[in-house]
Amino acid sequence: MRDSDAPPGGIADLRPLDRAREQKAWYWYDWANSAYVTTIATVMFAPYLIGIAENAAVDDRVDVLGLAVAPGSLPSYLVTFSTILSAVVLPPLGAMMDRTEHKKQWLAGFAWVGAAFASLLFFCRGDNWEIGAVAVVGANLCLAASMVVNDSILPLISEEHERDRVSSRGWAFGYLGGGLLLAANLALVTLLPFGLDEAAAARISMLSAALWWAGFTVIPFVRLRNHPPVDVAPATGNAVTRSFGQLAATLRDMKNYPMALTFLLAYLFFNDGIQTVIASSSTYGSEQLGFGQSVLIATILIVQFVAFGGALLFGRLAARLGAKRTILMGLGLWMVIVTVALFLPERSLVPFLALGVGIGIVLGGTQALARSYFSLLIPRGKEAEYFSFYHAMDRGTSWFGTLVFGLVYQFTGSYRPAIFALIAFFVLGGLLLMRVDTERGIRDAGNERPAVL
Protein backbone atom coordinates (compact mmCIF):
# COMPACT_ATOMS: atom_id res chain seq x y z
CA MET A 1 0.00 0.00 0.00
CA ARG A 2 1.31 3.47 -0.83
CA ASP A 3 1.78 5.77 2.15
CA SER A 4 -0.29 8.46 0.49
CA ASP A 5 -3.16 6.01 0.29
CA ALA A 6 -3.08 4.99 3.97
CA PRO A 7 -6.33 5.48 5.89
CA PRO A 8 -6.51 7.92 8.76
CA GLY A 9 -5.46 6.55 12.15
CA GLY A 10 -8.10 4.59 14.01
CA ILE A 11 -10.32 4.08 10.96
CA ALA A 12 -10.70 0.59 9.51
CA ASP A 13 -9.37 0.26 5.97
CA LEU A 14 -12.34 -0.85 3.88
CA ARG A 15 -10.56 -0.50 0.56
CA PRO A 16 -9.74 -4.23 0.25
CA LEU A 17 -13.48 -4.95 0.48
CA ASP A 18 -14.23 -2.27 -2.09
CA ARG A 19 -11.58 -3.70 -4.41
CA ALA A 20 -12.96 -7.22 -3.96
CA ARG A 21 -16.44 -6.05 -4.95
CA GLU A 22 -15.12 -4.34 -8.05
CA GLN A 23 -12.98 -7.34 -8.97
CA LYS A 24 -16.00 -9.62 -8.84
CA ALA A 25 -17.88 -7.21 -11.09
CA TRP A 26 -14.91 -7.01 -13.47
CA TYR A 27 -14.83 -10.80 -13.92
CA TRP A 28 -18.23 -10.65 -15.54
CA TYR A 29 -16.94 -8.86 -18.63
CA ASP A 30 -14.69 -11.81 -19.46
CA TRP A 31 -17.77 -14.01 -18.98
CA ALA A 32 -19.78 -11.71 -21.28
CA ASN A 33 -17.44 -11.26 -24.25
CA SER A 34 -16.20 -14.87 -24.32
CA ALA A 35 -19.58 -15.92 -25.72
CA TYR A 36 -18.88 -13.93 -28.88
CA VAL A 37 -15.31 -15.21 -29.10
CA THR A 38 -16.22 -18.89 -28.77
CA THR A 39 -19.64 -19.29 -30.40
CA ILE A 40 -19.24 -16.76 -33.22
CA ALA A 41 -15.61 -15.94 -33.91
CA THR A 42 -14.12 -19.39 -33.24
CA VAL A 43 -16.78 -21.89 -34.31
CA MET A 44 -19.79 -20.69 -36.29
CA PHE A 45 -19.10 -17.50 -38.20
CA ALA A 46 -16.66 -18.72 -40.85
CA PRO A 47 -18.51 -21.84 -42.10
CA TYR A 48 -21.85 -20.03 -42.00
CA LEU A 49 -20.62 -17.01 -43.99
CA ILE A 50 -18.86 -19.24 -46.52
CA GLY A 51 -22.19 -20.96 -47.20
CA ILE A 52 -23.97 -17.62 -47.65
CA ALA A 53 -21.19 -16.33 -49.94
CA GLU A 54 -21.34 -19.51 -52.03
CA ASN A 55 -25.04 -18.82 -52.65
CA ALA A 56 -24.13 -15.38 -53.99
CA ALA A 57 -21.02 -16.42 -55.93
CA VAL A 58 -20.73 -16.09 -59.68
CA ASP A 59 -18.06 -18.37 -61.16
CA ASP A 60 -17.05 -19.22 -57.58
CA ARG A 61 -16.29 -15.58 -56.76
CA VAL A 62 -18.00 -12.72 -54.89
CA ASP A 63 -17.34 -9.07 -55.54
CA VAL A 64 -15.75 -7.31 -52.53
CA LEU A 65 -15.11 -3.63 -53.34
CA GLY A 66 -14.26 -4.54 -56.92
CA LEU A 67 -12.10 -7.54 -56.02
CA ALA A 68 -13.08 -11.08 -56.97
CA VAL A 69 -12.83 -13.17 -53.79
CA ALA A 70 -13.36 -16.90 -53.37
CA PRO A 71 -16.14 -17.60 -50.82
CA GLY A 72 -13.84 -19.84 -48.80
CA SER A 73 -11.36 -16.98 -48.34
CA LEU A 74 -13.92 -14.32 -47.40
CA PRO A 75 -13.96 -14.88 -43.59
CA SER A 76 -10.14 -14.81 -43.42
CA TYR A 77 -9.98 -11.56 -45.37
CA LEU A 78 -12.62 -9.95 -43.17
CA VAL A 79 -10.87 -10.98 -39.97
CA THR A 80 -7.54 -9.75 -41.37
CA PHE A 81 -9.08 -6.40 -42.32
CA SER A 82 -10.69 -5.92 -38.90
CA THR A 83 -7.43 -6.94 -37.22
CA ILE A 84 -5.35 -4.40 -39.12
CA LEU A 85 -8.00 -1.72 -38.60
CA SER A 86 -8.04 -2.31 -34.85
CA ALA A 87 -4.22 -2.25 -34.69
CA VAL A 88 -4.35 1.25 -36.19
CA VAL A 89 -7.25 2.51 -34.08
CA LEU A 90 -6.32 1.14 -30.65
CA PRO A 91 -3.29 3.30 -29.68
CA PRO A 92 -5.01 6.70 -30.05
CA LEU A 93 -8.12 5.19 -28.45
CA GLY A 94 -6.02 4.07 -25.48
CA ALA A 95 -4.62 7.57 -25.09
CA MET A 96 -8.15 8.95 -24.99
CA MET A 97 -9.27 6.34 -22.43
CA ASP A 98 -6.49 7.39 -20.06
CA ARG A 99 -7.95 10.91 -20.02
CA THR A 100 -11.42 9.93 -18.90
CA GLU A 101 -12.75 8.71 -15.58
CA HIS A 102 -15.78 7.20 -17.31
CA LYS A 103 -14.09 3.95 -18.28
CA LYS A 104 -17.00 1.71 -17.33
CA GLN A 105 -19.31 3.70 -19.62
CA TRP A 106 -16.86 3.33 -22.51
CA LEU A 107 -16.45 -0.38 -21.73
CA ALA A 108 -20.19 -0.94 -21.82
CA GLY A 109 -20.64 1.29 -24.86
CA PHE A 110 -18.10 -0.63 -26.94
CA ALA A 111 -19.59 -3.92 -25.76
CA TRP A 112 -23.16 -2.97 -26.59
CA VAL A 113 -22.29 -1.56 -30.02
CA GLY A 114 -20.22 -4.68 -30.71
CA ALA A 115 -23.11 -6.90 -29.64
CA ALA A 116 -25.44 -4.92 -31.90
CA PHE A 117 -23.11 -5.56 -34.84
CA ALA A 118 -22.91 -9.25 -33.91
CA SER A 119 -26.70 -9.52 -33.76
CA LEU A 120 -26.84 -8.54 -37.45
CA LEU A 121 -25.64 -12.06 -38.20
CA PHE A 122 -29.17 -13.24 -37.42
CA PHE A 123 -30.31 -11.36 -40.54
CA CYS A 124 -27.51 -12.76 -42.73
CA ARG A 125 -29.33 -15.32 -44.85
CA GLY A 126 -29.91 -16.35 -48.45
CA ASP A 127 -27.13 -14.72 -50.45
CA ASN A 128 -26.78 -11.51 -48.39
CA TRP A 129 -23.19 -12.04 -47.22
CA GLU A 130 -22.62 -8.26 -46.99
CA ILE A 131 -24.58 -8.10 -43.71
CA GLY A 132 -22.26 -10.75 -42.26
CA ALA A 133 -19.20 -8.82 -43.43
CA VAL A 134 -20.36 -5.61 -41.75
CA ALA A 135 -21.31 -7.55 -38.63
CA VAL A 136 -17.97 -9.26 -38.06
CA VAL A 137 -15.79 -6.25 -38.87
CA GLY A 138 -17.81 -4.00 -36.55
CA ALA A 139 -18.03 -6.59 -33.77
CA ASN A 140 -14.31 -7.44 -33.90
CA LEU A 141 -13.33 -3.77 -33.80
CA CYS A 142 -15.61 -3.06 -30.84
CA LEU A 143 -14.41 -6.17 -29.03
CA ALA A 144 -10.79 -5.06 -29.39
CA ALA A 145 -11.63 -1.56 -28.14
CA SER A 146 -13.55 -2.94 -25.16
CA MET A 147 -10.65 -5.22 -24.22
CA VAL A 148 -8.27 -2.25 -24.11
CA VAL A 149 -10.61 -0.49 -21.68
CA ASN A 150 -11.24 -3.67 -19.70
CA ASP A 151 -7.55 -4.49 -19.27
CA SER A 152 -6.75 -0.90 -18.29
CA ILE A 153 -9.26 -1.22 -15.42
CA LEU A 154 -7.28 -4.11 -13.88
CA PRO A 155 -4.59 -1.87 -12.30
CA LEU A 156 -7.30 0.46 -10.98
CA ILE A 157 -9.14 -2.24 -9.02
CA SER A 158 -6.22 -4.32 -7.76
CA GLU A 159 -2.94 -3.80 -5.93
CA GLU A 160 0.22 -5.13 -7.54
CA HIS A 161 0.26 -8.30 -5.41
CA GLU A 162 -3.35 -9.11 -6.37
CA ARG A 163 -3.16 -8.83 -10.14
CA ASP A 164 -2.08 -12.35 -11.06
CA ARG A 165 -4.97 -13.77 -9.05
CA VAL A 166 -7.51 -11.27 -10.37
CA SER A 167 -6.44 -11.60 -14.00
CA SER A 168 -6.41 -15.41 -13.80
CA ARG A 169 -9.89 -15.52 -12.29
CA GLY A 170 -11.17 -13.22 -15.02
CA TRP A 171 -9.78 -15.50 -17.74
CA ALA A 172 -11.15 -18.57 -15.96
CA PHE A 173 -14.59 -16.98 -15.69
CA GLY A 174 -14.46 -16.19 -19.39
CA TYR A 175 -13.62 -19.74 -20.41
CA LEU A 176 -16.43 -21.09 -18.24
CA GLY A 177 -19.05 -18.70 -19.59
CA GLY A 178 -17.98 -19.11 -23.20
CA GLY A 179 -17.88 -22.88 -22.83
CA LEU A 180 -21.35 -23.14 -21.30
CA LEU A 181 -23.02 -21.15 -24.08
CA LEU A 182 -21.00 -22.94 -26.76
CA ALA A 183 -22.12 -26.32 -25.39
CA ALA A 184 -25.75 -25.22 -25.51
CA ASN A 185 -25.39 -23.85 -29.02
CA LEU A 186 -23.61 -26.92 -30.34
CA ALA A 187 -26.42 -29.04 -28.91
CA LEU A 188 -28.91 -26.81 -30.76
CA VAL A 189 -27.03 -27.11 -34.05
CA THR A 190 -26.51 -30.86 -33.65
CA LEU A 191 -29.97 -31.91 -32.44
CA LEU A 192 -32.01 -29.36 -34.48
CA PRO A 193 -35.10 -29.30 -32.21
CA PHE A 194 -38.42 -27.56 -33.00
CA GLY A 195 -38.08 -28.33 -36.69
CA LEU A 196 -35.11 -26.00 -37.16
CA ASP A 197 -32.76 -26.45 -40.07
CA GLU A 198 -29.00 -26.12 -39.60
CA ALA A 199 -28.81 -22.55 -40.94
CA ALA A 200 -31.60 -21.32 -38.65
CA ALA A 201 -29.98 -23.03 -35.64
CA ALA A 202 -26.65 -21.35 -36.45
CA ARG A 203 -28.33 -17.93 -36.74
CA ILE A 204 -30.12 -18.40 -33.40
CA SER A 205 -26.86 -19.52 -31.79
CA MET A 206 -25.00 -16.46 -33.04
CA LEU A 207 -27.82 -14.19 -31.86
CA SER A 208 -27.68 -15.82 -28.42
CA ALA A 209 -23.96 -14.99 -28.20
CA ALA A 210 -24.64 -11.36 -29.06
CA LEU A 211 -27.40 -11.13 -26.44
CA TRP A 212 -25.18 -12.87 -23.86
CA TRP A 213 -22.39 -10.35 -24.53
CA ALA A 214 -24.75 -7.39 -24.18
CA GLY A 215 -26.72 -8.74 -21.23
CA PHE A 216 -23.89 -9.73 -18.92
CA THR A 217 -22.04 -6.47 -19.62
CA VAL A 218 -24.72 -4.80 -17.51
CA ILE A 219 -23.10 -6.28 -14.38
CA PRO A 220 -19.70 -4.50 -14.66
CA PHE A 221 -21.48 -1.38 -15.92
CA VAL A 222 -23.59 -1.22 -12.76
CA ARG A 223 -21.09 -2.46 -10.17
CA LEU A 224 -17.75 -0.95 -11.25
CA ARG A 225 -16.80 2.53 -10.02
CA ASN A 226 -15.33 5.30 -12.09
CA HIS A 227 -11.77 6.17 -11.12
CA PRO A 228 -10.36 9.63 -11.86
CA PRO A 229 -7.35 9.69 -14.23
CA VAL A 230 -3.93 10.17 -12.66
CA ASP A 231 -0.59 11.48 -13.93
CA VAL A 232 -2.06 12.50 -17.29
CA ALA A 233 0.31 14.54 -19.41
CA PRO A 234 -0.99 18.09 -20.07
CA ALA A 235 -2.26 18.78 -23.58
CA THR A 236 -4.40 21.38 -25.29
CA GLY A 237 -7.14 21.18 -27.89
CA ASN A 238 -10.17 18.93 -28.23
CA ALA A 239 -10.38 15.31 -27.11
CA VAL A 240 -8.94 13.91 -30.35
CA THR A 241 -6.07 16.42 -30.40
CA ARG A 242 -5.27 15.74 -26.74
CA SER A 243 -5.32 11.99 -27.33
CA PHE A 244 -2.90 12.14 -30.25
CA GLY A 245 -0.73 14.56 -28.26
CA GLN A 246 -0.52 12.12 -25.39
CA LEU A 247 0.14 9.26 -27.80
CA ALA A 248 3.06 11.15 -29.33
CA ALA A 249 4.42 11.94 -25.87
CA THR A 250 4.17 8.30 -24.84
CA LEU A 251 5.95 7.10 -27.97
CA ARG A 252 8.82 9.46 -27.12
CA ASP A 253 8.77 8.37 -23.50
CA MET A 254 8.74 4.62 -24.12
CA LYS A 255 12.52 4.47 -24.04
CA ASN A 256 12.23 5.08 -20.30
CA TYR A 257 10.46 1.72 -19.90
CA PRO A 258 12.77 -0.75 -21.68
CA MET A 259 11.49 -3.73 -19.71
CA ALA A 260 7.92 -3.07 -20.86
CA LEU A 261 9.15 -2.88 -24.46
CA THR A 262 11.15 -6.08 -24.10
CA PHE A 263 8.10 -7.86 -22.72
CA LEU A 264 5.97 -6.57 -25.61
CA LEU A 265 8.48 -8.08 -28.04
CA ALA A 266 8.44 -11.38 -26.14
CA TYR A 267 4.64 -11.31 -26.12
CA LEU A 268 4.64 -10.71 -29.89
CA PHE A 269 6.34 -14.07 -30.41
CA PHE A 270 4.83 -16.37 -27.81
CA ASN A 271 1.29 -15.06 -28.17
CA ASP A 272 1.49 -15.47 -31.94
CA GLY A 273 2.56 -19.06 -31.36
CA ILE A 274 -0.41 -19.65 -29.05
CA GLN A 275 -2.91 -18.08 -31.43
CA THR A 276 -1.58 -20.07 -34.39
CA VAL A 277 -1.78 -23.37 -32.50
CA ILE A 278 -5.41 -22.61 -31.60
CA ALA A 279 -6.30 -21.40 -35.11
CA SER A 280 -4.64 -24.38 -36.80
CA SER A 281 -5.69 -27.15 -34.43
CA SER A 282 -8.94 -27.99 -36.21
CA THR A 283 -7.15 -28.11 -39.58
CA TYR A 284 -4.49 -30.35 -38.08
CA GLY A 285 -7.06 -32.61 -36.47
CA SER A 286 -9.19 -33.01 -39.59
CA GLU A 287 -6.66 -32.93 -42.43
CA GLN A 288 -3.62 -34.59 -40.82
CA LEU A 289 -5.14 -36.87 -38.20
CA GLY A 290 -8.42 -37.67 -39.96
CA PHE A 291 -10.91 -36.81 -37.24
CA GLY A 292 -14.51 -35.84 -38.01
CA GLN A 293 -16.46 -32.78 -36.94
CA SER A 294 -17.92 -34.42 -33.82
CA VAL A 295 -14.45 -35.17 -32.41
CA LEU A 296 -13.27 -31.63 -33.15
CA ILE A 297 -16.33 -30.13 -31.44
CA ALA A 298 -15.81 -32.34 -28.39
CA THR A 299 -12.16 -31.27 -28.24
CA ILE A 300 -13.10 -27.58 -28.41
CA LEU A 301 -15.41 -28.05 -25.44
CA ILE A 302 -12.73 -29.95 -23.51
CA VAL A 303 -10.26 -27.11 -24.10
CA GLN A 304 -12.82 -24.53 -22.94
CA PHE A 305 -13.67 -26.22 -19.66
CA VAL A 306 -10.14 -27.40 -18.84
CA ALA A 307 -8.89 -23.84 -19.50
CA PHE A 308 -11.15 -22.69 -16.66
CA GLY A 309 -9.19 -24.81 -14.20
CA GLY A 310 -5.90 -24.11 -15.95
CA ALA A 311 -6.23 -20.37 -15.49
CA LEU A 312 -6.97 -20.79 -11.78
CA LEU A 313 -4.04 -23.22 -11.42
CA PHE A 314 -1.61 -20.81 -13.06
CA GLY A 315 -2.86 -18.02 -10.80
CA ARG A 316 -2.01 -20.17 -7.76
CA LEU A 317 1.39 -21.08 -9.18
CA ALA A 318 2.16 -17.41 -9.81
CA ALA A 319 1.41 -16.64 -6.16
CA ARG A 320 4.19 -19.08 -5.20
CA LEU A 321 6.66 -18.80 -8.08
CA GLY A 322 5.98 -15.35 -9.51
CA ALA A 323 4.31 -14.51 -12.82
CA LYS A 324 7.47 -14.50 -14.95
CA ARG A 325 8.60 -17.97 -13.84
CA THR A 326 5.09 -19.34 -14.30
CA ILE A 327 4.78 -17.88 -17.81
CA LEU A 328 8.16 -19.40 -18.71
CA MET A 329 6.96 -22.74 -17.38
CA GLY A 330 3.85 -22.37 -19.53
CA LEU A 331 5.96 -21.67 -22.62
CA GLY A 332 7.91 -24.84 -21.88
CA LEU A 333 4.63 -26.75 -21.83
CA TRP A 334 3.65 -25.19 -25.17
CA MET A 335 6.93 -26.52 -26.61
CA VAL A 336 6.02 -29.97 -25.31
CA ILE A 337 2.55 -29.69 -26.87
CA VAL A 338 3.78 -28.90 -30.41
CA THR A 339 6.44 -31.62 -30.09
CA VAL A 340 3.83 -34.21 -29.07
CA ALA A 341 1.61 -33.03 -31.94
CA LEU A 342 4.44 -33.78 -34.38
CA PHE A 343 4.32 -37.50 -33.47
CA LEU A 344 0.59 -37.89 -32.76
CA PRO A 345 -0.72 -41.00 -34.56
CA GLU A 346 -3.59 -40.67 -37.01
CA ARG A 347 -7.13 -41.49 -35.82
CA SER A 348 -5.89 -42.15 -32.31
CA LEU A 349 -8.62 -40.53 -30.24
CA VAL A 350 -7.28 -40.74 -26.68
CA PRO A 351 -3.89 -39.07 -27.40
CA PHE A 352 -5.68 -36.34 -29.38
CA LEU A 353 -8.10 -35.62 -26.52
CA ALA A 354 -5.18 -35.69 -24.06
CA LEU A 355 -3.45 -33.08 -26.21
CA GLY A 356 -6.62 -30.97 -25.96
CA VAL A 357 -6.47 -31.27 -22.17
CA GLY A 358 -2.84 -30.12 -22.23
CA ILE A 359 -3.73 -27.11 -24.37
CA GLY A 360 -6.59 -26.23 -22.03
CA ILE A 361 -4.35 -26.36 -18.95
CA VAL A 362 -1.76 -23.98 -20.36
CA LEU A 363 -3.92 -21.77 -22.61
CA GLY A 364 -5.77 -19.53 -20.18
CA GLY A 365 -2.92 -19.40 -17.66
CA THR A 366 -0.26 -17.99 -19.96
CA GLN A 367 -2.61 -15.35 -21.39
CA ALA A 368 -3.97 -14.30 -17.99
CA LEU A 369 -0.52 -13.94 -16.43
CA ALA A 370 0.83 -12.07 -19.45
CA ARG A 371 -1.87 -9.45 -18.84
CA SER A 372 -1.17 -9.09 -15.12
CA TYR A 373 2.63 -9.19 -15.54
CA PHE A 374 2.54 -6.43 -18.15
CA SER A 375 0.46 -4.27 -15.81
CA LEU A 376 3.42 -4.20 -13.40
CA LEU A 377 5.76 -2.76 -16.05
CA ILE A 378 3.64 0.20 -17.21
CA PRO A 379 3.34 3.64 -15.58
CA ARG A 380 0.26 4.68 -13.66
CA GLY A 381 -2.10 6.92 -15.59
CA LYS A 382 -1.20 5.34 -18.96
CA GLU A 383 -2.77 1.91 -18.47
CA ALA A 384 -5.18 2.11 -21.41
CA GLU A 385 -2.55 3.49 -23.73
CA TYR A 386 -0.02 0.78 -22.95
CA PHE A 387 -2.66 -1.92 -23.12
CA SER A 388 -3.67 -0.54 -26.51
CA PHE A 389 -0.10 -1.22 -27.68
CA TYR A 390 -0.36 -4.64 -26.04
CA HIS A 391 -3.47 -5.49 -28.06
CA ALA A 392 -2.18 -3.79 -31.20
CA MET A 393 0.93 -5.96 -30.93
CA ASP A 394 -1.35 -8.97 -30.65
CA ARG A 395 -3.51 -8.01 -33.62
CA GLY A 396 -1.03 -6.26 -35.87
CA THR A 397 1.46 -9.15 -35.90
CA SER A 398 -0.87 -12.13 -35.53
CA TRP A 399 -0.22 -13.24 -39.09
CA PHE A 400 3.44 -14.25 -38.51
CA GLY A 401 2.58 -17.65 -37.07
CA THR A 402 -0.05 -18.51 -39.66
CA LEU A 403 2.38 -17.45 -42.41
CA VAL A 404 5.06 -19.80 -41.06
CA PHE A 405 2.52 -22.59 -40.67
CA GLY A 406 1.33 -22.13 -44.26
CA LEU A 407 4.82 -21.88 -45.76
CA VAL A 408 6.10 -24.99 -43.99
CA TYR A 409 3.07 -26.94 -45.15
CA GLN A 410 3.52 -25.68 -48.70
CA PHE A 411 7.16 -26.76 -48.82
CA THR A 412 6.74 -30.09 -47.02
CA GLY A 413 3.21 -31.15 -47.92
CA SER A 414 2.56 -32.17 -44.31
CA TYR A 415 0.95 -30.44 -41.35
CA ARG A 416 3.26 -32.23 -38.90
CA PRO A 417 6.38 -30.12 -39.53
CA ALA A 418 4.12 -27.09 -39.90
CA ILE A 419 2.74 -27.43 -36.36
CA PHE A 420 6.18 -28.25 -34.96
CA ALA A 421 7.72 -25.17 -36.61
CA LEU A 422 5.70 -23.05 -34.18
CA ILE A 423 8.10 -24.10 -31.41
CA ALA A 424 10.36 -21.31 -32.68
CA PHE A 425 7.82 -18.72 -31.47
CA PHE A 426 7.82 -20.14 -27.95
CA VAL A 427 11.61 -20.40 -27.87
CA LEU A 428 12.11 -16.79 -29.05
CA GLY A 429 9.37 -15.52 -26.76
CA GLY A 430 10.87 -17.35 -23.80
CA LEU A 431 14.41 -16.10 -24.48
CA LEU A 432 13.18 -12.51 -24.72
CA LEU A 433 11.08 -12.89 -21.57
CA MET A 434 14.16 -14.13 -19.71
CA ARG A 435 15.81 -10.80 -20.54
CA VAL A 436 13.07 -8.86 -18.73
CA ASP A 437 14.39 -7.60 -15.38
CA THR A 438 11.13 -7.59 -13.43
CA GLU A 439 12.40 -5.56 -10.48
CA ARG A 440 13.83 -2.89 -12.75
CA GLY A 441 10.64 -2.76 -14.83
CA ILE A 442 8.50 -2.28 -11.73
CA ARG A 443 10.87 0.35 -10.40
CA ASP A 444 10.97 2.24 -13.73
CA ALA A 445 7.16 2.27 -13.87
CA GLY A 446 6.87 3.51 -10.27
CA ASN A 447 4.79 0.55 -9.13
CA GLU A 448 4.93 -1.37 -5.87
CA ARG A 449 7.00 -4.56 -5.78
CA PRO A 450 4.88 -7.66 -5.05
CA ALA A 451 6.19 -10.01 -2.38
CA VAL A 452 6.71 -12.75 -4.98
CA LEU A 453 8.33 -12.08 -8.34
TrEMBL record:
Domain of life of the source: Bacteria
Gene3D superfamilies tied to this protein? MFS general substrate transporter like domains
Q: Which PROSITE patterns does the entry mention?
A: MFS (PS50850)
UniProt keyword Magnesium, yes or no: no
Sequence ranges assigned to domain Major facilitator superfamily (MFS) profile in this UniProt record? 259-453
What membrane topology term does the record carry? Multi-pass membrane protein
Q: Which UniProt keywords apply?
A: Membrane, Transmembrane, Transmembrane helix, Transport
* GO CC annotation terms, alphabetical: plasma membrane
Q: Does the keyword Cytoplasm apply?
A: no
Q: Where in the cell is it found?
A: Cell membrane
Q: Give TM segment ranges.
A: 31-53, 73-94, 106-123, 170-194, 200-222, 260-279, 291-314, 326-344, 350-374, 395-412, 418-436
Query: Mind listing the GO molecular function terms for this protein?
Result: transmembrane transporter activity
* Annotated InterPro entries: Atg22-like, ATG22/LtaA_families, MFS_dom, MFS_trans_sf
Matching Pfam families: ATG22
According to UniProt, the name of this protein is MFS transporter
Q: Which organism is it from?
A: Nocardioides gansuensis
Its lineage opens with: Bacteria, Bacillati, Actinomycetota, Actinomycetes, Propionibacteriales
